[in-house]
User: Which sequence fits this backbone?
């Protein structure tokens, strides 16, 4: 197994790299399309605005290669913005197209009953406990979130976990084949997060 990590100049790379290393894997940063051929598994750590991140992918020439990687059902783990970019568009950056891998758009929390951004620990409701990604988990594990936006109208066949925050019950993780992505940060989620990354890295 050879692990690549997308480096688009804005992600929270260090904590994700440290989490992977604690699991026995040393990821190599990917900044050019031609480098993707060196890897079997890919992690896209997320931090930053939707539009800025897509601009960086376009500038680096990684947009279409990422689409091709996922279309070929190669292992992909997206985190936070690396999750949101899989959708078609976001209210955060009007006029900017996402990768369009998953139908749906990303919208901002509107509830006045909760703090925005959604920051801290929340339980998630697993929709497919038989999935290899959730091996070793019981329902309602806790993970760490930091976000103000979340996807809506996600096709049910992609929904791997949901989370309740205020009045919103949103899709917190998606899964299809070897595509897996989470709104929460596994690298900041202690034991549960390491277990989840371990399921991806050591199937």
Assistant:
């Amino acid at each position: 197994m050879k692990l690549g990590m997308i480096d688009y100049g804005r992600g929270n790379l260090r904590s994700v790299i440290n989490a992977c290393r604690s699991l026995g894997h040393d990821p190599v940063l990917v900044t050019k399309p031609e480098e993707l051929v060196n890897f079997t598994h890919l992690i896209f750590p997320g931090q930053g605005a939707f539009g800025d991140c897509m601009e960086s992918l376009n500038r680096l020439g990684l947009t279409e290669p990422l689409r091709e990687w996922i279309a070929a059902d190669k292992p992909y783990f997206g985190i936070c913005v690396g999750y949101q970019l899989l959708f078609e568009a976001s209210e955060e950056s009007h006029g900017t197209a996402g990768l369009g891998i998953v139908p749906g758009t990303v919208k901002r929390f509107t509830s006045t009953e909760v703090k925005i951004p959604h920051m801290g620990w929340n339980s998630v409701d697993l929709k497919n406990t038989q999935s290899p990604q959730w091996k070793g988990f019981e329902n309602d594990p806790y993970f760490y979130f930091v976000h103000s936006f979340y996807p809506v109208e996600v096709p049910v066949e992609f929904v791997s976990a949901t989370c309740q925050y205020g009045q919103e019950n949103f899709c917190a993780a998606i899964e299809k084949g070897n595509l897996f992505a989470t709104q929460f940060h596994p690298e900041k989620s202690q034991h549960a997060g390491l277990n989840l990354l371990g399921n991806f890295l050591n199937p």
About this structure: Residues 132 and 167 are 30 Å apart (CA to CA).
